[in-house]
Amino acid sequence: MFLVILLPYLFAEIYLSLKMLEVIGAGWATVWTVATMIVGGLLLKNTPFALMGNLSALQRGKLDLQRFHDAGMSYFLGALLLIVPGVLSDLFGVAALLYTLYLQFVATITPEQKFTQEFHSAKGEDDVIDVEIVDECTDSDSRLTRKR
Q1: 20 contacts 87 by C-beta, under 8 angstroms
Q2: Distance in angstroms (rounded) separating the CA atoms of residues 76 and 96
Q3: CB under 8 Å to 43, separation ≥6 — which residues?
Q4: Alpha-carbon distance 71 to 42, whole Å?
Q5: For the stretch 62-72, what's the b/e string if a residue is b when 16 or more beta carbons lie within 10 angstroms of its beta carbon?
Q6: Where does the chain have alpha helices with state H?
Q7: Contacts of 93 (CB under 8 A, 6+ apart)
Q8: 65-83 vs 47-60: helix axis angle to the nearest 10?
Q9: Which has fewest Cβ within 10 Å: 56, 58, 64, 79?
Q10: Whose CA is closest to 107, among 99, 97, 117?
Q11: End-to-end CA distance of the chain
């Protein structure tokens, strides 16, 4: 199954890389490849800081847990794909990084929505009645006794 996916990807990668080589030349293609490798390496080096930023957004309520996971994985995957030489992998890497930006800035939720959803979606909390029973009888004869 993996081979069925890998072969068309490799052929497309080679085809696009040769087309880019034909259009911009060997020198600029080399510059492109080295530059994207450097950018990918720098992004990969800064992954812990990006994850800490996502974690603080999660704590502030700007990201939910699923979007936190998606943002972290797409950032990491985007950095790795930029390191891999080739035009198609660079396009996929940039798309993954754009998805990370989308999750960070466009698809955020407000803290009020998060906490309202979190506290009102819990099952059984609305069914609880908190009461206190006070016995105001003073004489012991009027109290009901329980047999054990």
Answers
A1: yes
A2: 9
A3: 50, 75, 78, 79, 82, 97
A4: 17
A5: bbbeebbebbb
A6: 2-24, 26-45, 47-60, 65-83, 87-101, 111-120
A7: 36, 40, 77, 78, 79, 80, 81, 82, 84
A8: 160
A9: 56
A10: 99
A11: 70
Residues in the chain: 148
Residue recorded with tokens 């034909």 = 22
Q: What is the pLDDT of residue 91?
A: 94
The string of pLDDT tens digits covering residues 39-52 is 999 999 999 998 89
Would you state the structure tokens that stand for residue 34, as one six-digit string?
């080295």
pTM comes to 0.67
